[in-house]
Amino acid sequence: MENYNARYARHYSLKNFGQEGQQKLAAAKVLVIGAGGLGCPVLQYLIASGIGGVGIVDNDIVSLSNLQRQVLYTTDDIGKFKVEVAAEKLKRLNPETKITIYNTAISSKNALEIIVNFDIVVDCTDNFASRYLINDACVLLDKPLVFGAVYQYEGQVAVFNVKDKNGVQANYRHLFPNPPQSDEVQNCNEGGVLGVLPGIIGVMQATEVIKLLTKIGEVLLNKLLTYNLLNNEIFILEIIGGSAAYNLIPKTEIAFKAMDYDWLCGISVTETGALSPADFVRKSTISDTIVIDVREKYELPKADFRCINIPLSELSIKMDAINEKNILLFCQSGKRSLKAAAILTEKFGTTKTIRHLKDGIMALQDKYNEQDN
Question: What interhelical angle do 82-93 and 39-49 show, nearest 10?
Fold first, then answer.
């Protein structure tokens, strides 16, 4: 049977899909940015479906706290680069797909050169700076963008930068024109996420990619789907396009590469006073030092070292009681402790040495879990 591949037999049997639909998948190249909670199911299902070429962008390593939701990895993979582990396992899933890995963080310096080689981009990142950057690059290159996000018990999916039947073409900035500051929104490290949720949303993202490529069904063009797993409630928000959002996007490659997306989203690039887990532990033993947990009292994991708890929300009214010369701060991911360091520096100036734990207690926990393994 000409062009028959038993691997895709169930696709061939589908009405309005068949071998023609499968050939469209085989001819496509899809870029997945982020190989974490969303990226794992997106990659698994796209590669199983027979996409011809898949690119993976990520520079993170596997940690123990990933395994509750990033089911492409196992305990044996802790400490290894995600893109390398993912590529090796996905090649075994479907050796017919050409996999290209980019062991790097997506940035304004490399995004255009990477994205230009693909037909569709899937945003599986977990921070606003990356989302705005990816969106702007896709608008500049006129690439469809499949967006996904998760937080606690709720997820979102949308398809951007594709014209609907009315000629409307919305992008991420139509949904969120102004980025929140880094300390205004919690990420999964701080707020948590139920492990199954990224699997659900990631599969939805993969589904939208397949629908886009094969032109079956109704794609979420200019629509934001929100799913609440606690009550299985789904609602769809219409996104209104318009020229105003395009005014916020760099118009040229030179302008794009000059854009500082971390600054745009209020992320400190210099990270003044940031300490690695090893340096944080070492400095905590110095005399006349106080270690302050600026998380709320209910947050886990609890610290197993000497510290006091002053939530960021209470810091301004309690900092007069801090008498020690050296102050070490930590939170869940490093964002709130960085803000706390700024508040205390404004109060005490150079009379005290103020430092914070970069990437938070989760980085400290991962550091010692890696050593145990």
Answer: 30
Q: How far is CA 274 from CA 16, 188, 219, 362, in A?
A: 56, 21, 44, 15
- What are the residue boundaries of the structural domains of the chain, listed by start? 6-264, 274-372
Q: Residue 182: what pLDDT?
A: 54
Backbone angles phi, psi at 12, to 5 degrees: -60, -30
Catalytic annotation, residues = 188, 331
Contact criterion met (CB below 8 Å) for 362 and 337: no
The tokens for 156 are: 């979102």
Which residues are CB-contacts of 312 (< 8 A; sequence separation ≥ 6)?
294, 295, 331, 336, 339, 340
- Which tokens belong to 323? 């008498």
1: confidence class by pLDDT, cuts 50, 70, 90: low
Q: Of 117, 114, 102, which Cα lies nearest the Cα of 29?
A: 117
pLDDT digits (tens, 9 = 90+) for 90-109: 999 999 999 999 999 999 99
Q: What is the CATH number of domain 6-264?
A: 3.40.50.720
Decide: 120 and 74 in contact? Cβ < 8 Å: no
Mean pLDDT to the nearest integer, 361-367: 78
Q: In CATH, which of 3.30.980.40, 2.40.128.50, 3.40.309.10, 3.40.250.10 is domain 274-372?
A: 3.40.250.10
Angle made by CA atoms 257, 261, 265, in degrees to the nearest 5: 170
CA distance 205 to 120: 11
Q: Residue 310 corresponds to which tokens in the numbers above?
A: 């002053």
Note the pLDDT of residue 192. Answer: 80
Q: 17 and 63 in contact (C-beta within 8 Å)?
A: no
Give the model confidence (pLDDT) of 258-298 as tens digits: 888 876 776 544 455 788 888 899 889 889 999 999 998 88
Q: Which residues contact 88 (CB under 8 A, 6 or more apart)?
A: none
pTM: 0.77
Token look-up 């629509």 returns 223
- H-helix or E-strand containing 155? strand 154-160
Among 275, 334, 312, CA closest to 127: 334
